[in-house]
């Protein structure tokens, strides 16, 4: 299919602070929840230790050392022609413990330098305010997002970064994959569930706190700079019915509603009825304060950012449903029509077109694909080249479907930032060998390697894609 993307389309790539920066113990940074995550594997869950335990390898402490190499890295991204670069701000660099009144100037200076470096190459920073980390002290002292006090700490953080970077950053997102709190509560909200606790009540209460924090941040951001574009960010686990049995269709709808609930609140500014009824039926009591409904209404987002990697299926047949397939955060049924990645993620490029149409029909506000990509094992050849044709293939098909959604279906799409544009630490497994990047980083799962950067074959391919505004996908 021929055709270009609209003028000003934001081509770029995405990363998160805790998966690239390293710089643990530098610049006054405090310990974050990501800093207590151990290394895992496809069949070994990451653990979250109680504080830093000596002798354990924590992948985030060095990551790919972007903290010291950001100039070299941003230059490489600029060579690909990036129009934008999505990263996050490590909350614990700005407020090492999270509850201080005064921010850490050294941390602020680091992001000044990163954003200046981007702007030097006309790359727009796209900033996730909270991407799977928070100061660890907020967990031990306050119980993390269980506690309503977190809202004030988060807003203080937002105020500082909005004011500081108001002339450097225009695009923001409040919480990465906010719906993941329902599946992985520690990574998303610093919550370790105790045995005997009413799991859903704890989680949905914490989600309510994040909704209020997000809405307040949107209102505050717009007050500080009316040009800010502040979005939500949803993990989009597209779920199909296994068959046309109405029971399967209903199950698939219900599975999607559990995710839409999060974007509904952030886009429409109110709890959807299906969720209120779910709470009622399951005796889930969410404590809300007077004025919360108004806060949600006043703080609706400007766009919907979302991640899309795969699709799942729902089936009323117990044997076919279940959790045979999935990714790092969500699981569901396997689809016999799809192939999977080496990590078992079901590859579905057409699903991206469906996702774009579903989200645009539902909300009618601009969308932004802020994550998409293939985690794969790469091999460095003797001549230093990396022939990652499988990655090119994955991205080409996804971009083709994205193009159809924009050109044929009329979906309003702001941009596309494939995940892990430079190799980084996997969030789900803590591995290095699960690579997404256009740029290879020499480091292995145990933390060994020179950290040298190499351009993969996909680097040159993506450069052409951007230069032709999506016309040349060959
Ligand atoms: C998303 C996260 O869930 O998927 C990223 O926002 C993460 O932080 C990405 O890295 C890919 O997942 P993984 O587990 O392969 O790193």
Automatic annotation (TrEMBL):
Which GO terms are recorded in the biological process aspect for this UniProt protein? carbohydrate catabolic process
In terms of PROSITE patterns, this protein maps to:
GLYCOSYL_HYDROL_F1_1, GLYCOSYL_HYDROL_F1_2
What is one GO cellular-component annotation here?
A: cytosol
What Pfam families does the annotation carry? Glyco_hydro_1
Task: Report which superkingdom the organism of origin falls in.
Answer: Bacteria
Asked if the Swiss-Prot or TrEMBL record annotates the protein with the keyword DNA repair, the reply is: no
> Mind listing the GO molecular function terms for this protein?
beta-glucosidase activity
Q: Which UniProt keywords apply?
A: Glycosidase, Hydrolase
Annotated PANTHER family: 6-PHOSPHO-BETA-GLUCOSIDASE ASCB-RELATED, GLYCOSYL HYDROLASE
Query: What protein name is recorded for this chain?
Result: Aryl-phospho-beta-D-glucosidase BglH
Q: Which organism is it from?
A: Anaerocolumna cellulosilytica
* Name of encoding gene: bglH
């Amino acid at each position: 299919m021929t055709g270009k993307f609209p003028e000003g389309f934001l081509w770029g790539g995405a990363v998160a602070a805790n998966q690239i920066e390293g710089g643990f113990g530098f610049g006054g940074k405090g310990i974050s929840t990501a800093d207590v995550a151990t290394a895992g594997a496809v069949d070994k869950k990451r653990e979250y230790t109680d504080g830093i335990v000596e002798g354990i390898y924590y992948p985030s402490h060095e990551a790919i050392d972007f903290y010291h190499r950001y100039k070299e890295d941003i230059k490489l991204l600029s060579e690909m022609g990036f129009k934008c670069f999505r990263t996050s701000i490590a909350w614990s660099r700005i407020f090492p413990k999270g509850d201080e009144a005064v921010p850490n100037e050294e941390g602020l200076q680091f992001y000044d330098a990163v954003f200046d470096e981007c702007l030097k190459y006309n790359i727009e920073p796209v900033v996730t305010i909270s991407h799977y980390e928070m100061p660890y002290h907020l967990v031990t002292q306050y119980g993390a997002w269980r506690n309503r006090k977190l809202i004030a700490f988060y807003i203080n953080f937002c105020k500082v970064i909005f004011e500081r970077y108001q002339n450097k950053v225009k695009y923001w997102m409040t919480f990465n994959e906010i719906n993941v709190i329902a599946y992985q509560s520690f990574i998303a909200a610093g919550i370790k569930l105790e045995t005997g606790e009413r799991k859903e009540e704890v989680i949905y209460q914490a989600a309510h706190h994040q909704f209020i924090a997000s809405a307040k941040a949107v209102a505050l951001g717009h007050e500080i700079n009316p040009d800010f574009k502040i979005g939500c960010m949803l993990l989009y686990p597209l779920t199909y019915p296994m068959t046309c049995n109405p029971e399967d269709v209903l199950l698939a709808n219900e599975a999607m509603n559990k995710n839409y609930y999060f974007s509904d609140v952030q886009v429409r500014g109110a709890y959807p009825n299906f969720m209120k009824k779910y709470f009622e039926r399951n005796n889930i009591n969410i404590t809300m304060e007077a004025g919360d409904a108004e806060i949600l209404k006043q703080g609706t987002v400007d766009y919907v950012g979302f991640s899309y990697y795969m699709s799942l299926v729902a089936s009323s047949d117990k044997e076919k449903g279940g959790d045979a397939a999935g990714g790092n955060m969500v699981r569901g049924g396997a689809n016999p029509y799809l192939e999977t990645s080496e990590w078992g993620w079901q590859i579905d490029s057409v699903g991206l077109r469906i996702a774009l149409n579903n989200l645009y029909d539902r909300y009618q506000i601009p969308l932004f694909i802020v994550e998409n990509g293939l985690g794969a094992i790469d091999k460095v050849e003797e001549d230093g080249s990396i022939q990652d044709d499988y990655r090119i293939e994955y991205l080409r098909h996804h971009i083709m479907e994205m193009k159809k959604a924009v050109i044929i279906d009329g979906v309003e799409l702001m941009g596309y930032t494939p995940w892990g544009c430079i190799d980084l630490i996997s969030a789900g497994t803590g591995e290095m060998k699960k690579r997404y990047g256009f740029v290879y980083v020499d480091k292995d799962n145990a933390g060994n390697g020179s950290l040298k950067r190499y351009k993969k074959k996909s680097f040159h391919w993506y450069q052409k894609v951007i230069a032709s505004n999506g016309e040349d996908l060959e």
